[in-house]
Amino acid sequence: MSGPGAASRDAGLQPERTRLAWRRTTLACSVAAVLAVRQALHGSGSPLRVAGTAVIALIWLAFLGVAHVRMRQLATARPPALAPQVALGAVLCTVALALFAMTVIF
Q: Which one of 23, 54, 55, 64 has the largest count of C-beta atoms within 10 Å of its C-beta?
């Protein structure tokens, strides 16, 4: 859109819906991390499980940071497009969290 109305384009509710989706994803990652920590604490307490739980906590904190940056960007009047680094960070954190959670559980 390069016409005269392009600068005053109303984004509508799309940024709000996207921000809510980031919140839901953050909540899902939090639940997965808490369940993995719970499983590790109620298990044998082996050093491998404790190390896996620590890695899960670090991955969860990294994802919270990525999500926080994106949600702050979406709070502006004209949010910027999702940067490839942010998208890659979110994907890597989500996949790593799932893998380490499965490792701790099994």
A: 55
